[in-house]
Amino acid sequence: MSVVDVREAITRAHREQWARVVAALTRRFGDLDIAEEAAAEAFATAVERWPGDGVPPNPGAWLTTTANRKAIDRIRRENKRDDKQKEAQLLYDGVPPEPLGAIDDERLRLIFTCCHPALAMQTRVALTLRMVGGLTVPEIARAFLVQETAMGQRITRAKAKIKAARIPYRVPSTEDLPARVSGVLAVLFLVFNEGYLATGSGTDPVRHDLTAEAIRLSRLIHALMPDDGEVTGLLALMLLTEARRTARVSASGELVPLHEQDRGAWDTALIAEGHRLVRERLATGVAPGRYQLLAAINAVHTFARDVRDTDWSQVVALYDQLVRLDPAPIVALNRAIAVAELDGPEVALAAVDRLEHHLVDYHAYHATRAELLRRLGRSQRSRAAYDRAIELAGNTAETAYLTRRRDQLK
Amino acid sequence: MQYLVSVIDDKTNSATPSELGAIDAFNDRLRAEGHWVFAGGLAAPSTATVIDSRGGEALFTDGPFLESKEYLAGFWIIEAPDLDVALRLAAAGSKHCNRKVEVRPFL
Question: Is the pLDDT of residue A89 over 80?
Answer without folding.
Answer: no
